[in-house]
């Protein structure tokens, strides 16, 4: 796909490319020039793993879940620590 540079140095990213990469109005793009080419990368606000961290909802607390898997923790015997 081809596009032209405007008088202001602006380029329109073709719609099929925007759709494929999920680029929307207001998204930040990072431009890198190397070896006669321009590379453009969509800047993500947050690491994808960080974005979903903590979203898993368990039916019980983590401690209860671990007790279910391993059995409850036995208190140390008197004199042991």
Can you give a write-up of this model?
The chain is of the alpha+beta class. The chain has a domain at 15-70. Helices cover 26% and strands 15% of the residues. It has three helices and two strands; from the N terminus they run H-E-E-H-H. It has helices at 15-21, 48-52, 62-70, and strands at residues 29-34, 37-42. Strands 1-2 form a two-stranded antiparallel sheet. Strand 1 (29-34) and strand 2 form a beta hairpin. The radius of gyration is 26 Å and the shape is rod-shaped. The N and C termini lie far apart (70 Å). The mean pLDDT is 87.
Task: Fill in the keyword field for this structure.
single chain; 81 residues; alpha+beta; two-stranded antiparallel ribbon; 3 helices
Computed CA radius of gyration, to the nearest angstrom: 26 Å
**Secondary-structure element sequence?**
HEEHH
Largest sheet: 2 strands, antiparallel
The helix/strand class is alpha+beta
Poorly predicted runs: none
Rounded mean pLDDT is: 87
Compile the SSE list and pairings.
Blueprint: H1 15-21, E1 29-34, E2 37-42, H2 48-52, H3 62-70
Antiparallel strand pairs: 1-2
In short:
By secondary structure, the chain is an alpha+beta fold.
